[in-house]
Specification:
With 117 residues, the chain is an all-alpha fold. It is 86% helix and 0% strand.
């Protein structure tokens, strides 16, 4: 809708400079071709993002696992050398995001398993 408005404004401005109707039609087709190319590029960008979605869950889980591992190792090392263990805060939002991802992942798998039967 916005691009149609933009194209019409550009054509209105071009009509003042190009009085020939055939050249106006040619300009209109070129502008629409540019608009189509822009939409194709946006589609390619969305396809690239869509192809990266399967890597998001493992990355979140890897970050959470590494945070818990570092927390455990720091407690283990500090307790063995006789020092007080530091309090390392792991954000609850990250834990909840990972729980939600896992719940939806296994929920989807379960629904697919029963839907096939």
């Amino acid at each position: 809708m916005l691009t149609d408005l933009l194209i019409s404004k550009i054509l209105d401005i071009a009509k003042g400079f190009i009085p020939d109707t055939s050249k106006q039609k040619e300009l209109e087709t070129k502008i629409k071709e540019l608009d189509i190319e822009e939409l194709k590029e946006k589609g390619n960008y969305i396809d690239k993002i869509h192809s990266l979605i399967p890597f998001v869950l493992p990355c979140f889980l890897l970050v959470l696992l590494s945070m818990f591992t570092l927390n455990y190792l720091s407690d283990f090392i500090n307790s063995n050398i006789g020092r007080e263990c530091p309090i390392i805060h792991i954000d609850d939002r990250l834990v909840e995001i990972c729980k939600t991802f896992i719940a939806f992942l296994f929920g989807k798998k379960t629904i697919e398993k029963f839907a096939k039967k």
